Amino acid sequence: MFRPLSAVLVLAALAACNGKHQPTDEPPAAPAESDGCALKVPCALSSAVTVTVTEVNDSRCPKGAQCMWAGDAAVTVSVGGETLELHSNPERGAAQASTAAGATLVLEDVVPYPDITPAPADSIRVRLRLAQ
């Protein structure tokens, strides 16, 4: 008598577990909360906004160096067929935020911070966020 009831309980438990491993339609995490966007690789900031960092020109003063000015990281981003240029140094009068294709992007950071030895291009990450 206990065997049919045990079999029913096992089947019910298996059926309940089956739906827990289904893929979800959740958007990927925003790069600002992760490593950031790599150069020339499409990067999803939300389910509706995908950007591609096309170029980074980093003239920030390297660690351990003495510089006359702080420098600037200029980042070129493609979004929705439009191109934006964002800057890390607002003192130069350049934009840290800009709007294209209905999305306002804010440059949070460019990592790694420059050192005396330049970082390989494939290690550079740009942290962007969508303005609310």
Structural description of this entry:
The protein is mainly beta. It has one domain. 13% of the residues lie in helices and 34% in strands. The chain has 1 helix and 8 strands, in the order H-E-E-E-E-E-E-E-E. Strands 1-8-7-6 form a 4-stranded antiparallel beta sheet, with no helix packed on it. Strands 2-3-4-5 form a 4-stranded antiparallel beta sheet, with no helix packed on it. The longest helix is centred in the first third of the chain and has 17 residues, at 2-18. It is globular. It starts with a helix and ends with a strand. Mean pLDDT is 79; it is low at 5-33.
Topology:
Elements: H1 2-18, E1 37-38, E2 43-44, E3 50-58, E4 73-79, E5 82-87, E6 97-100, E7 103-111, E8 125-130
Antiparallel strand pairs: 1-8, 2-3, 3-4, 4-5, 6-7, 7-8
For this entry, give a set of tags.
single chain, mainly beta, 4-stranded antiparallel beta sheet, 8 strands, 13% helix
Strand order of the largest sheet: 1-8-7-6
Q: What portion of residues belong to β-strands?
A: 25-35%
The tally of domains stands at 1
In sequence order, what are the helices and strands, one letter per element? HEEEEEEEE
- For the report, how would you describe the main beta sheet? 4 strands, antiparallel
Oligomer: single chain
Given helix and strand content, the structural type is mainly beta
N- to C-terminal distance: 62 Å
- Cα gyration radius (Å): 23 Å
Shape: globular
Please count the helical segments: 1
Helix content: 10-25%
Number of strands: 8
Mean pLDDT: 79
Uncertain stretches of 5 or more adjacent residues: 5-33
Quick recap:
This protein has 132 residues and is mostly beta strands. It has one helix spanning 2-18, and strands at 37-38, 43-44, 50-58, 73-79, 82-87, 97-100, 103-111, 125-130.
